[in-house]
Specification:
The complex is a heterodimer of chains A (about 300) and B (about 300). With about 300 residues, chain A is mainly beta. Chain A has 2 domains: about 5-130, Thrombin, subunit H (Beta Barrel), CATH 2.40.10.170; about 145-285, 3-layer Sandwich (tm1086 (SG structure) fold), CATH 2.102.30. In chain A, about 10% of the residues lie in helices and about 30% in strands. The longest helix of chain A is centred in the first third of the chain and has 10 residues, at about 75-80. Chain B has 2 domains: about 5-140, Beta Barrel (Thrombin, subunit H), CATH 2.40.10; about 155-285, tm1086 (SG structure) domain (tm1086 (SG structure) fold, 3-layer Sandwich). A 6-stranded antiparallel barrel of chain B has the order 1-5-8-7-6-9. In chain B, strands 10, 13, 14, 15, 16 and 17 form a 6-stranded mixed β-sheet that branches. Chain B is globular and about 55 Å long. The chains are: A mainly beta (about 300), B mainly beta (about 300). At the A-B interface, strand 16 of A face strand 16 of B.
């Protein structure tokens, strides 16, 4: 796969492990109109890593691993726009100084996977520096495909295949129908993610989406995420599952945009193993958590 | 006409200032990037729009998400949330400062995320006297409105005045609502995941052919529309069999995921709301607002 990787600049962006936050009115309404106090975002998550199930946790928008943010507005946006999936992240302060992890998501925070023994040494406020590399990456033989937040390392893990007809075959675990794309439609494709809507529990089960894992590669048909995120008949978007399920209407696991084409330049190919956890050598396939029972908020009536 | 609990509702004053269009400071660029990746510079939403009003086409204006009339916003976040949450479509608005002091208008919609405006219709001669930062008081009335026979039809942003004008018809288990058009869930974009207490959900217009197939290219600002397979009882999101009813509050956009915005006024599961498509259904006529101008190109 020919790319312009040689022309990319690798540069440092940084933040700190950010604390979970609460509010005076911590309760939120679920899609069933029940009140719930949610947890799952920010901080250090000891229970879930990339490769583990996206559903079943008693949590909302679960962010696996360590959540990183910069307290200054400008550098914070640099984190958002420059950190790419698969980039190296180095702990530069505290007891875990020098430990290396992998960027696996961009949500409200940058999500970094570390080995459990590193997580045990991490403290909130520890500084994390990311070797940002991937912004501007292009597939030279596929000019109709726009890349977002793909590091060269991630690109290898995607196992793309150029077909004789000029299309690009991409292995994916599942396909999400266009009408299930929800919160995040208002944003540009290079900022954070777009949830697929899980509140219609019967509907997501029909497509096997309730079995998805953090780190899975998915396809979304008839959605053009080249620049913004919207319905466009015939377009294809390839995404990465970065955070867990949600109880709120219009939300669900997060899909971070990786590849997009306005026309049929991308061909999704079913592959149950298309997950960055093992494809990037972060985790052993056999060592991940089993599927969990259904979250309490996903049981209606 | 269905009976309801309006006698128990309070009317409360909430207030905002006439807003101004805004652009980011340098070195940021003012362009909106279209769904096709092309940048354009267009008037951003808000301010005082003199020549677009409810009843006009939602399409064809060279502006991003044009708000017909005056967009108002409170400069403080807490009071602005109250303004946006408590204002209902059909509520009376009164100018309480400046040259148009005492002039009255009508709330016709709410803008989406990032703008956070309440949109108010005023007669043209009032718009001519309005100044940015003039204060506008909304007599907010309708929060908590519920239909006695249909407790599972959730009402939001709906004034008793507009409810009466909707001319709904009830049968034992359904509420029949006349609408100008129906929007399929696949065309609903920006707004999904946000709460329905204020704001709007946008009809995605990037794929013009699909928009035309559903007759939505004829939509006008102020039209009453039904959203199919869409649940807006709490937040906005897909739910098979649900129907929401809303008012087209602001105009089209070139951005992916965006387009004319619909402020939702009713939402229910399981087919409790039955939309009935009629030739014309627009709040300009239903509420007796100013006569519509000719549609844009």
């Amino acid at each position: 796969m020919r790319t312009n990787a040689d022309q990319l600049v690798e540069l440092a962006v940084c933040g700190e492990v950010w604390p979970p936050t609460g509010a005076n009115t911590q309760y939120k309404a679920t899609s069933e109109g029940k009140s719930t106090v949610t947890l799952g975002m920010a901080g250090i998550c000891y229970s879930a890593r990339v490769g583990d199930p996206a559903f079943g946790w008693e949590a909302d928008h679960l962010e696996p691993g360590a959540s990183v943010r910069n307290r200054l507005n400008g550098p914070e946006h640099a984190l958002h726009y420059l950190a790419c999936m698969g980039n190296q992240a180095v702990v530069t302060s505290g007891s875990a100084q020098g430990a290396v992890g992998t960027v696996t998501g961009e949500h409200a925070h940058i999500l970094v996977d570390f080995e459990p023994d590193v997580l045990d040494l991490l403290a909130i406020g520890d500084r994390i520096q990311i070797h940002a590399l991937g912004t501007g990456l292009c597939l030279l033989d596929h000019p109709d495909v726009r890349l977002h937040k793909c590091s060269p390392r991630l690109l290898d893990a995607l196992r793309l295949e150029a077909r004789p007809d000029g299309t690009l075959a991409v292995p994916v675990v599942a396909e999400i129908p266009s009408y299930l794309m929800g919160s995040g439609a208002e944003l540009m494709a290079d900022y954070v993610d777009q949830d697929f809507m899980s509140n219609d529990r019967a509907e997501i089960a029909r497509y096997g989406l309730d079995k998805l894992r953090l780190g899975d590669i998915v396809a979304v048909r008839d959605q053009d995420h080249s620049w913004g995120r919207g319905y466009y008949s015939g377009a294809i978007t390839i995404g990465l599952i970065i955070h867990g399920d949600s109880a709120w209407t219009g939300h669900g696991p997060g899909v971070l945009d990786l590849l997009a084409s306005r026309g049929p330049a991308i061909v999704p190919v079913p592959d149950p193993d298309a997950n960055i956890a093992w494809r990037m050598g972060i985790r052993e396939r056999g060592a991940v958590a089993n599927a969990l029972p259904v979250s309490s908020y996903a049981i209606y009536g | 006409m269905p009976s309801d609990n309006r006698s128990q509702l309070i009317t409360v004053g909430v207030q905002g200032n006439v807003s101004s269009p805004e652009y980011p400071s340098l070195p940021a660029s003012p362009y909106e990037i279209g769904a096709d990746g092309q940048p354009e510079l267009r008037p951003s939403p808000g301010g005082i729009v003199y020549n677009v009003k409810v009843g006009d086409s939602a399409f064809g204006w060279l502006a991003d998400m044009v708000q017909p009339g005056a967009g108002i916003r409170n400069p403080q976040d807490g009071p602005n949330h109250a303004l946006n949450i408590l204002s209902c479509i059909g509520n009376e608005a009164v100018v309480v400062s400046g040259r148009a002091l005492g002039a009255r208008g009508t709330v016709t919609g709410k803008s989406g995320r990032f703008a956070e405006h309440v949109i108010v219709n005023f007669p043209r001669e009032v718009l001519e006297k309005l100044a940015i930062e003039d204060r506008v008081l909304v007599r907010a009335h309708g929060r908590g409105l519920a239909l006695t026979g249909h407790p599972d039809v959730q009402l939001k942003s709906l004034s008793p005045r507009l409810l009466d004008a909707l001319e709904t018809r009830e049968t034992a288990d359904k509420l029949h609502v006349p609408v100008a058009a129906e929007v399929p869930a696949v065309l609903l974009g920006a707004g999904s995941g946000l709460l329905n207490e204020s704001g709007a959900v946008s009809i995605q217009t990037d794929h013009a052919e699909t928009v035309r197939e559903h007759g939505l290219d004829r939509l006008r600002l102020g039209d009453i529309v039904a959203l199919r397979d869409y649940d807006s009882r709490w937040g906005h999101g897909y739910r098979r069999g649900s129907v929401a009813i809303g008012v087209v509050a602001f105009g089209d956009s070139r951005r992916a995921g965006h387009g004319p915005g619909v402020t939702v006024i009713m939402s229910a599961l399981h087919g409790r709301i039955e939309p009935v498509i009629v030739a014309e259904r627009n709040i300009a006529t239903l509420l007796g607002l100013s006569v519509p101008l000719a549609a844009a190109v």
